[in-house]
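Repro case for the chain-ordering regression, as requested:
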Amino acid sequence: MIRIEHVTHAYGDRVVVDDVSLDLREHRIGLIGANGSGKSTLARMVNGLIVPDTGRVLVDGLDTRDHVKEIRRRVGFVFPDADTQIIMPTVAEDVRIGLRDSGLSRDEIEARVDEALARHGLLEHRDHPAHLLSSGQKQMLALASVLVTEPQILVCDEPTTLLDLRNVRIITETLRTLPQQVILLTHHLDTLSGFDRVLVMDAGKIVFDGAPEDAVAYYVALMEQRP
Amino acid sequence: MNTVGLYVPGTSLPYRIPAGVKLLALLGTVTVLVVLADPWVSLGAVLAVVLLYILWGLAAHLWHAFRPVLLFLVAIAVFHAVFTDVHTAVRVCSQLTAVILLAGLVTRTTPVSAMLDLFTRLARPLQHVGVRPERVGLVLALTIRCIPMVAEAWRASREAYVARGLRGGAHRMVVPVIVNLIRSAEALGLALSARGLD
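-- result from build under test --
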């Protein structure tokens, strides 16, 4: 369970998250908003990548300010550009490095790596250079590399932004079937269909919180008001 | 084939030899060839390495391993033929060819992870002076990973430059490429943190 308590964060004079309080318990949660609305900053706080200026973020009762290692074991994070998320030169190596400190034996690690690659359709690319994969495959690799560590929560920051329609569908379907709690930030509003809860963020505040259809309608209306 | 993805998956004998043993064999070969400094020994070594490529089913990769240094070798051969003698030209070029082909064989039969594990193990004594061996491996891996990233940053800047109807002046690409790389490095650092690897 994620609890966000009176969180505020600013870059210089610009307040990007403004006194946000939330309890996030649902299995599938969407977060939408215009560029610069503060949603990426808020999402990064859940993984402890950004510590709020004021207020606190708790994951299963653990404050991200004090328990960052434990938080990062519990919360996986997927970035918009998979290219900058892939650390190792080859596909299997990138998945394997997440298990470096897992305490598993070499054979167990290899089995977990193969299982993760198979689940994400990458087993045949096991020993290929990661940078030669297609954009969709790179994003699947980014997902596999995060999910192999079995986090309880997955935060995805616009994982489909750089993808074509087919790959958007593949990633969306993958996210739908995950047992983890998923927090998805997206501009592809149709991917939120079937979600339990969708939040709309604007100017650092949560301005709507409800069912996907209502949230999307609110967001579209909000954007239409903008010059 | 590319500069980073040289490893060719396989299960034959060279794949089962530990990375450390292969690197020692490479080092030993270089030492012997340099110490003996005999063109016939060097030519024999070239022949032996070529046979290993064929024997281990990697004959198709022989040209890929040799092609990048061909012009370089021709230049060295011409230089020695003109300024020293043909004997030296043959010796130096055959020494280099044998070593380059053997290094190519090691690279093609050793996964990057095995090589990084080796360097991490080799760095273990350094932990007494505060160096974390796993960091050494990670830094090497990131260095290898960044080669295509730099190439991509250059390609993207070049395309943007040409798309705006600009020509020549490759030096003008330096600033956007560096800016692009700094941005990528920041994102990579963030990803390392997010995955608990920092």
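Ordering looks correct now. Residues 13-110 of chain B form one domain.
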